[in-house]
Amino acid sequence: MSTEPTQPETATPTTPAAAAAAGTRLDPWFGSYSARTRGMKASEIRALFAVANRPEVVSLAGGMPNIADLPMEDYADAVADLLRSQGTRALQYGSGQGDPVLREQITEIMALEGINAHPDDVVVTTGSQQALDLVSRIFLDPGDVLVAEAPSYVGALGVFRSYEAEVVHAPMDAHGLVPEELDRVLTELAARGKRAKFLYTVPNFHNPGGVTLSLERRPRVIEVARRHGVLILEDNPYGLLGFEGEPLPALASMAPEDVIYLGSFSKTFAPGYRVGWALAPHAVREKLVLASESAILCPSNAAQLAISTYLSQFDWQAQVKEYRRMYAERRDAMVGALAEYLPTCSWTVPEGGFYVWVRLPEGLDAREMLPRAVTALVAYVPGTAFYADGSGSEYLRLSYCYPTPERIVEGVRRLAGVLNAEAELVGLFGTGGTSRRTSVDGPSPDVS
Amino acid sequence: MSTEPTQPETATPTTPAAAAAAGTRLDPWFGSYSARTRGMKASEIRALFAVANRPEVVSLAGGMPNIADLPMEDYADAVADLLRSQGTRALQYGSGQGDPVLREQITEIMALEGINAHPDDVVVTTGSQQALDLVSRIFLDPGDVLVAEAPSYVGALGVFRSYEAEVVHAPMDAHGLVPEELDRVLTELAARGKRAKFLYTVPNFHNPGGVTLSLERRPRVIEVARRHGVLILEDNPYGLLGFEGEPLPALASMAPEDVIYLGSFSKTFAPGYRVGWALAPHAVREKLVLASESAILCPSNAAQLAISTYLSQFDWQAQVKEYRRMYAERRDAMVGALAEYLPTCSWTVPEGGFYVWVRLPEGLDAREMLPRAVTALVAYVPGTAFYADGSGSEYLRLSYCYPTPERIVEGVRRLAGVLNAEAELVGLFGTGGTSRRTSVDGPSPDVS
Q1: CA of A248 to nearest chain B CA: how many angstroms apart?
Q2: For residue A283, which of A155, B27, B105, B304 is within the disulfide window of CB 3.0 to 4.6 Å?
Q3: Quick one: which of B231, B308, B293 has its CA closest to B262?
Q4: B34/A139 Cβ within 8 A
């Protein structure tokens, strides 16, 4: 994995020769980059994560789904049959919008969350990350504002930054985004003469917050957004991975003309084909297709047909039930270990998805603590990764999706050791992250 | 496929309500789009091509490779074995830069064109279209200038337009880009106070020009670019598809610090996995990886491992030889038919690749003629698609990659009927495209 070049990124000499003369000879093209590139940074924790991938480290950092239980033997046969019967189609260019049969199947999946969509309003993308990129591309000019929950998915914040947009956070609590707070944030923006281009929200089993937007609040969030003329970008990779009860109705099911909905096969099947989708109001969908054709010509036919085959020939809903059972067990392991080993912290208890959001005791800083955690063979993501403004140092995200329950417990135990040593230091010397406690409120920890 | 919404794209009301009031009620989010989206247009010939895809039409328009002769049975078995033995890796997230084994294999492929590259300087992309997008993303600010051959690949022009860049064309002749003309164009830019961010060039079997940059000119093009401080973007999907002799050395083999080289499996194997790559100077490669992670997180592991399997378990170079033989036969069919049926036109005779570039006789306009051609059941791409400035109407691109030799001959015969009827009209009424004959010179037709 790469790290950031070390030359200063201030001067912008206009020729390679001038760049070299200015001491940036490590990169002769340094003076040629676009403004958006000058704001592009490798994560500061990236080098650390290269270490964290060593097998002796318990990583509670990643968001990799556990796909070990997929029926791989049978699936291999099905893919081989696909190539034998439709190989020249699977290996050829396809439609920019995506395979029509897969788009039809996608509408059936979305129906499970109450969405009544037409396949013509679906665009297949290279994972839902590409959908985030395309939506940003068609809506965001440099300096534009959007509203996102506090905290928000780190990958979305990176996309918004790459389009040089300003992210304003709106607080969540244990029931998700707070409509009154959203109203306040949008009103304050209006007072500054700004209208947010969209609201970015992960309503179900929030990454990283671990909370879910309550059914009661959903129409209220829509009402607030609509009153302010703000489009909603509903990112929903985890919606079918609730541990109990039925999926909540998507925002897109309640306000199809006001919502761009993003879905993905990465968590309900597997991420390796990089297939996700966007459902959008018709005119927006047209723009998304044009933007996608410019970006990649067309999504992979081979990937789409392989997923379409999985959906039609396997009991994918039974597999999702199995995933739910497995992830619920891991959630229980993590929450149990937190109660046992980290009584001085507070945390959210997710009803689905992959993540627990932990608040550290007063005085501790998750980012400063990370190198010591990795030394103690446990990794997490510091809360700062999930705020656009550098706040969030009193939080950390723990994921329970990939390690076994035993490893999760061991990871939390190791984390407790680091935390206790850290707390002792703070007690002795009074150092720590207290001065940084200025984050927009994350989900309330009182649900723990 | 989509068509462009019909509302005017001039006013930009600031709220959905205002947009509706302004008569744009077809799209409530019309006022929210970014500047780059307002410049985004569906091709005017798109609707026509939907018709041209009917089986009774001979399409000489598309660039789809003919992959019917791939060893599909054996390949299906190999992919099934891959899923059985490495399924949980193939279906999992991967590295943002791309699979290390595939990157090693890619360096071996590039060695065939004299490139001595390290796998660490290779980035795997979602087809080389994504590489074009990423390079544009990291280098182009709105208003920036780049130089591209006249004519240039339509998909690249679309990307450059989406980044709001200005394309300045530099003339080609039968031996490819003319170094003296490139020097003149860059000198004129300098006089305007502009430095081109890069030179976009397709040196081998040009799309759409059908010509190849001569060996003698290659160091001269590099010298000119270097003297003006201009990076070279070498797009080379067809380099291994020459009909005779050995591949020419890539520009990247002669000036690795001055060139970003783009490669693709779409033409040497198959396009359906959407796997291409960029080789870039190290510091640029770092930016490309960060940009790609923002755009798609990571390329598809399943696609990369499937291609890696093909490269290691099949005699892919023998398959490329077979492709060459097949495409040479089709080139011969097309050139023979042109000589027989279209003696009033002139054309390039490609030594590889997929395309012939045809110049119409005085007075004819390829864009105006296209609907009549489709009615006569033959399709092509008008030259205007390959110029950023709307010129090129006296040219058209014919591709011989996908139809059989018999269909190619029949297509050219039909085209001749359209052309003769058109020429008669021009003779009778004096209408036609003469007033548009202001294109920057395309490849000289004197090689025909």
Answers
A1: 26
A2: B27
A3: B231
A4: yes
